[in-house]
Fold this sequence. Notes:
alpha/beta; GroEL; seven-stranded mixed sheet; three-stranded mixed sheet; 16 helices; 47% helix; 17% strand; elongated; disordered C terminus
Amino acid sequence: MKNIEAAKEISAMTRTSMGPNGMNKLIINHLDKVFLTKDTAVMCKELDINHPAARLIVNASKMQENEQGDNTNFVLTFAGEALNLAGQLIKSGNHPSDILIGYEKAWNKTLELLDSAPKYTLGDLRSHEEVTKIIKSSIGSKTLQCQENILAPLIAQSCINVLPSKSDDFNVENVRVAKILGGSLVDSTVIKGLVVVRAVEGRITHAENCKVAVFNCPLETQGLETKDTVVFKTADELINYTRSEEDHMEKIIKEIVDSGVKAVIVGGSVSDMAIHFLDRYGVLVFRIMSKFELRRIAKAIGASLLVRLGAPTKEEMGYADKICVDEISSHKCIVIVRESDENKLSTIVVRGSTNNMLENIERIVEDGVNCYKSACKDPNFVAGAGAIEMYLSNGIKQFGKTVTSLDQYSIAKFGEAFEVVPRTLSENSGLNVNEVIANLYGKISEDPNMGIDVNVRIFLI
């Protein structure tokens, strides 16, 4: 019972964020970073949970995030409700093993009902209109003030841009988000390529059909570790003091250029001397300070991260069709374009007034892209707004009536657990919960696509 109480606590905390009228949570982590979000995946990531039972269902939610990229709130909410009803059965005298057997039977019946449930099938993965429709339903509960009408077409366009010939190979990493402060969400655009919000280090700002070297180390000569005093006796000694260092750096840059590299990406500092020689040989160079972003760029262009200075081998080099500098809202941006059929790149340039808003929009975009990835594997979608949950609840309860053993009680409770979704949607929207659930049970037998419209507060087909 203590384990069930712990699961109920974590479930009660996240279920208030479910649906379009769910509440945002203000989270401050151990680094004092502030999150304003209703994304359960962020809550699970930032929370420090010690109770083993609560940690178990939080890990299940994280696994859902890894596999599908969305629907994490449902995992916690449904798990908390199913355990809560199991607690009621235990108090009534049912043995936990009987409850478990009944829950397993109900789960198998759930899979059968899902197969027979009415579905909407996405006909064409390259149809902008159809893809926008499915993404809008996925991100609609996470946005404010109808932002999904702006974001869904952008996400759809970027996903279609990077869709390979074999749809199962769709890679969510090929759709990136560039956050730029200033303007409003309606100013957001989609750019074919990878956008890095920073300027190049040298004067070379354009390269086409270029081989790219990615260094995960500073591009500079190592200085002396000792503190010595140097005495110059003549002017020639002063002039020639750094000549050997210059010759060494020029040799390194010459080796890189001779290998055919036209662009260099560095994950650390770049010395002025290195920039001077790179400009002389016409090589574009820029820095990426985030090691995670550096890995993503290297993977996108097919390059290996080098931890040594010198010429990369043919296998270690990446390739880009074009690298150029663009200006967006007075911010210098580097655009990396790769038109390979199997590895195209697309970036959604998100505009907004605050960093919190931009980070929240980035998480919403990731959910929309993961929805498209799921559609690439299985193009079938069931009705939302609590409709499929009520359909499953009704079907499982009817199945429970045909069972004569003690399992029937736990099967009925498992079906009742699905009511938590329409009940939560109603509670978060200020509707009369009992009236909504009763009306849904009356309508669901006529039309399994019947759900709750929380905006106009009437039932729609």
